[in-house]
């Protein structure tokens, strides 16, 4: 015999109730021996409770009661609920007159929901010529008199059940009301939370059923609640012990009391979905999974109470007093954590009991307050408990680090010594993000990295294309899901928590909205987006003013924009401090040498104690292209310059390259990597733009490029033979001091020299160090261009995903 239990959502009008009948019919046709246990249909119990509340306050309830009746009869006009409806009418009338009700009355009211449900299903089955027998569990399950949460009297109930089934068995389908029972005085009682499940497992136990099938509206037990964690996976099989942990920690389709009768008789429990009943669901048996299961469960509606006091140190019996005082008021403590100094004790209670718990403890510790042994008892109301079942402390650092990285700081945590469960108390507003972060970390599910990209010009636009093109591969190879949730220019942002797609350019035009940085932070927060990275592909100083705010709100930073690193040294230090305080990272490899691995190399050399004595080279890709081509070919300066602009080598405003600012910035960035505290004003720059052309808009300048031709024709002709022009940066001097010398200048070098041989848009960096002596470490390669730069930014993003 199998016991089938159907929950309220399965029995709701429409697809639910139709499918329930279909499932039962299917089993009967296959000659399966079954017993059916039913909850009240849809929201029936809540509705009845609502009407009862109204009636008890003598408020009008008739309209709601009529709607209730209408729902029960909707589509089932042939069914006679006169008796149940009359009972309800009388009960509500009485409550309304009295202006109050007892738990006993409430049980009588609620029981009508299960009776109506079982009566309906019995008749619908009979209409299909199935031998169905309405079974009122009040004649079977006998309980004590604790209305609202009655305890079954096992012996008596078992005897009743067995005798009923001996009478009505064979091919009959007994359709049993769940949740309701009666006491020895024949008064209606109910079995409390999860009561219908309890009825089903009691029947399974008494009848020694082969399996209990619990039909819900989900496909089984998941690694986490799929409503909160979209990546949650179904668990195929788990043991009662593991299920018990889940039940204890709040998995709401299981409850400890419903499992115990099954464990006793070793009866498997299968969690199934009415709406997808061919799915095998989750099977719970006595055998443990070899690898051990992991899953996340959540306790909501809880509060954290904190008792603090210096005088508690070494005092005997403080915990006992807390527990005793709370137990006296029937307040249960689910999680407790205490420092070894005993100065603070934190524990979790049900939210609706928190105030009472505080009052009780204030009374208990009144004299300790006077003696100043206890300094305060506080309640943190909006908290939730996350339990990682199957997690021990050996690998706990992974989810824990991921939480900290995402600015979720648990308020309290504890572990079970043997059960391999770790529980964390987090602020309720952080629950969603915390669950997703932990889940991504403990299961081998792609870790989601949420990217906000600012600036989608040459570099930013290319980066987006590169990410979209390779994201699938990266997800497969590295289990990292790069999700671009925001793309912004200076005016508009396109937001999509599920990630933009290849039509992003059109979407910005059509769906982009004007924004402030706060809007983006709020969006990420509201959608609980984790592992946030902001990527600055603008050339804007104004945008760098957002960096601090982004860091404070949990974003790591990646930037191709050089401005933030070349503002005042004070800002430079302040930003690093902010990053450290918030445990955030800032990567900017493309700031010098585009995609070349320069900054990383210099950082490593410096960190390892290698004395860097000088860095010299062609720092600008666009000016490299300009002078390499101009020196070797007989063409106009303006023509070659325009070519460098067209190839995307220059800054958005090409004057930034020609005036030497861009090289100056790069030089300063390297100097600061060596812990020098130079300011931008310290850089000696040879400005390549003749004075008369420096003012005005970029466009005006571009229209006057021809004016540069004579100047550079002359410079070219005045060189020694076999020499070429190179625009170089040079960081030199005693670099162990506070500041170094920074020069940016146009030089004429022999064509055969290392600098003279540079080609195309290549940059070359010569790094002189004490160990390497006169032979510098040389890094050379494309120093500009959207594709290489975007690739470099992409590299920084991936590096950050690994750091997490
Ligand atoms: N092109 C290259 O070879 C290299 C460029 N870089 C840097 O990459 C950055 C981007 O360069 P490109 O893509 O060539 O420039 P771009 O002019 O093509 O694109 C810049 C984008 O930033 C947007 N923008 C400007 N202010 C903004 C703000 N406040 N908020 C949001 N968006 C804003 C603009 O609307 C534009 O879409 C620059 O900082 C540049 O120095 C770094 C290394 C190499
Ligand atoms: N404009 C820059 C681009 C890279 O930083 C250059 O030419 O090097």
What features would you describe in this structure?
- It is a single chain.
- The protein is an alpha/beta fold.
- It has four domains: 2-43 and 119-285, Acetylglutamate kinase-like (Carbamate kinase, 3-Layer(aba) Sandwich), CATH 3.40.1160; 295-442, VC0802-like; 447-590 and 794-803, NAD(P)-binding Rossmann-like Domain (Rossmann fold), CATH 3.40.50; 598-784, Dihydrodipicolinate Reductase, domain 2, CATH 3.30.360.10.
- The protein contains 28 helices and 32 strands.
- An eight-stranded mixed β-sheet has the order 3-5-2-1-8-12-13-11, sandwiched between helices.
- A hairpin with a 7-residue loop joins strand 31 and strand 32.
- It is elongated.
- The mean pLDDT is 94.
- 1,4-dihydronicotinamide adenine dinucleotide (NAI) binds at residues 454-460, 488-490, 537-540, 542-543, 560-562, 590, 594, 621, 648-649, 651-652, 784-786, 789.
- Residues 597-798 form the Homoserine dehydrogenase catalytic domain.
- Residues 455-589 form the Aspartate/homoserine dehydrogenase NAD-binding domain.
- One of its GO terms (biological process) is threonine biosynthetic process.
- Homotetramer.
- Pfam families: AA_kinase (PF00696), ACT_9 (PF22468), Homoserine_dh (PF00742), NAD_binding_3 (PF03447).
Brief summary of the model shown:
Residues 305-365 form the Aspartokinase ACT domain. Helix content is 40%, strand content 22%. By secondary structure, it is of the alpha/beta class.
Give the SSE map.
Elements: E1 2-6, H1 15-29, E2 34-38, H2 44-56, H3 62-73, H4 82-98, H5 103-127, E3 132-135, E4 142-143, H6 154-167, E5 173-177, E6 180-183, E7 188-190, H7 195-206, E8 211-216, E9 221-222, E10 234-235, E11 237-239, H8 240-248, H9 256-265, E12 269-273, E13 282-285, E14 295-308, H10 318-328, E15 335-338, E16 344-350, H11 354-364, H12 366-370, E17 376-389, H13 397-405, E18 412-415, E19 421-427, H14 431-442, E20 447-454, H15 458-478, E21 480-488, E22 492-495, H16 504-511, E23 513-514, H17 517-526, E24 532-536, H18 541-544, H19 547-552, E25 555-559, H20 569-581, E26 586-587, H21 598-607, E27 612-618, H22 621-632, H23 637-646, H24 655-658, H25 661-673, E28 683-685, H26 698-703, H27 709-717, E29 723-732, E30 741-750, E31 762-769, E32 777-782, H28 786-803
Parallel strand pairs: 1-2, 1-8, 2-5, 3-5, 4-6, 8-12, 11-13, 20-21, 20-24, 24-25, 25-26, 28-30
Antiparallel strand pairs: 6-7, 9-10, 12-13, 14-16, 14-17, 15-16, 17-19, 18-19, 21-22, 22-23, 27-29, 27-31, 29-30, 31-32
Bound molecules: 1,4-dihydronicotinamide adenine dinucleotide and ligand LTNE7NMQ.
The site of 1,4-dihydronicotinamide adenine dinucleotide (NAI) has 30 residues, from helix 15, helix 18 and helix 28.
